[in-house]
């Protein structure tokens, strides 16, 4: 989908890239040819409309121009740039949990002992419904465990990416950032959102009408405005397009802090995480 137009391609992703590049070149060439033709016609009309002998031809060409379906210049999709700020170095263990049992009314897991060491990048995997999001929120103190102890290390400053935006969020993208960082100027907020690949239309739209990928970029932007030394990311790639996903991967590989990531995409994290925790080994559910 590009500029509100759906184009279907068949074949592999590599074939799509090849065909898409050809299509872009053809569209650019057609636009340039038409612009050259328009310029020639306008020049002829300007030179001949005042002369009695050529006025008829000038008027005829003007009518031709008026009826011409003018091609629009293809607009480039803004490319995002993600960069997470690093806070001061925390203690050796960023999170420690002992005999931790997750759940709400009933246990989702057996007792689990966890240690997340400073600077480590860990992916959390497992089928849906086993408590991955519950684990992240429990470790951050957002919800209480059924039992067990959790201890955050000294000087830990987390940045948390929620899987979905809050339902019924009436804020615009600008207001969403401003609400969190009231000291930022409007120029700074706009620049931060634009750096994440959002257009002026996105920036001034309400969160509830943005696409999943656009809303995800706003949530990532919020995290990037402050120094953190622990990134806790709940399926951040879910709605991102290929370019944004590649840029996020680059930024996370470059980040020097600790990462705890929930993802169903081994291709996204497989070459940069230090270890993978499989929650399927902890669950009380039958898989």
UniProtKB/TrEMBL annotation:
<dbReference type="InterPro" id="IPR032781">
    <property type="entry name" value="ABC_tran_Xtn"/>
</dbReference>
<feature type="domain" description="ABC transporter">
    <location>
        <begin position="91"/>
        <end position="287"/>
    </location>
</feature>
<keyword id="KW-0067">ATP-binding</keyword>
<dbReference type="InterPro" id="IPR027417">
    <property type="entry name" value="P-loop_NTPase"/>
</dbReference>
<dbReference type="GO" id="GO:0016887">
    <property type="term" value="F:ATP hydrolysis activity"/>
</dbReference>
<dbReference type="Pfam" id="PF00005">
    <property type="entry name" value="ABC_tran"/>
</dbReference>
<dbReference type="GO" id="GO:0005524">
    <property type="term" value="F:ATP binding"/>
</dbReference>
<keyword id="KW-0547">Nucleotide-binding</keyword>
<protein>
    <submittedName>
        <fullName>Heme ABC transporter ATP-binding protein</fullName>
    </submittedName>
</protein>
<dbReference type="InterPro" id="IPR003439">
    <property type="entry name" value="ABC_transporter-like_ATP-bd"/>
</dbReference>
<dbReference type="Pfam" id="PF12848">
    <property type="entry name" value="ABC_tran_Xtn"/>
</dbReference>
<dbReference type="InterPro" id="IPR050611">
    <property type="entry name" value="ABCF"/>
</dbReference>
<dbReference type="InterPro" id="IPR003593">
    <property type="entry name" value="AAA+_ATPase"/>
</dbReference>
<dbReference type="InterPro" id="IPR017871">
    <property type="entry name" value="ABC_transporter-like_CS"/>
</dbReference>
<keyword id="KW-0677">Repeat</keyword>
């Amino acid at each position: 989908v590009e500029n509100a137009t759906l184009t279907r391609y068949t074949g592999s992703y590599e074939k799509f890239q090849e065909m898409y590049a050809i299509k872009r070149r053809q569209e650019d060439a057609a636009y340039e040819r038409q612009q050259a033709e328009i310029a020639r016609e306008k020049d002829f009309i300007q030179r001949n409309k005042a002369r009695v002998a050529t006025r008829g031809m000038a008027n005829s060409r003007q009518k031709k121009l008026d009826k011409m379906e003018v091609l629009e210049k293809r607009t480039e999709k803004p490319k995002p740039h993600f960069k997470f700020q690093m806070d001061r170095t925390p203690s050796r263990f960023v999170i420690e949990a002992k005999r931790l049992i997750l759940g709400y009314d009933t246990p989702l897991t057996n007792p689990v002992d966890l240690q997340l060491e400073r600077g480590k990048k860990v992916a959390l995997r497992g089928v849906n419904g086993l408590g991955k999001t519950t684990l992240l929120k429990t470790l951050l103190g957002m919800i209480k465990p059924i039992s067990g102890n959790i201890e955050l290390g000294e000087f830990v400053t987390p940045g948390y990416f929620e899987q979905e935006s809050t339902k019924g969020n009436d804020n615009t993208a600008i207001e969403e950032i401003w609400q969190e960082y009231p000291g930022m100027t409007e120029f700074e907020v706009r620049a931060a959102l634009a750096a994440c690949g959002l257009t002026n239309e996105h920036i001034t739209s309400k969160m509830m009408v943005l696409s999943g990928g656009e809303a995800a970029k706003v949530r990532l932007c919020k995290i990037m405005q402050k120094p953190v030394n622990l990134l806790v990311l709940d399926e951040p790639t879910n709605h991102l397009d290929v370019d944004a996903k590649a840029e996020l991967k680059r930024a996370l590989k470059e980040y020097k802090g600790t990462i705890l990531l929930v993802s169903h995409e081994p291709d996204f994290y497989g070459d940069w995480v230090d270890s993978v925790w499989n929650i399927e080994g902890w669950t009380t559910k039958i898989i």
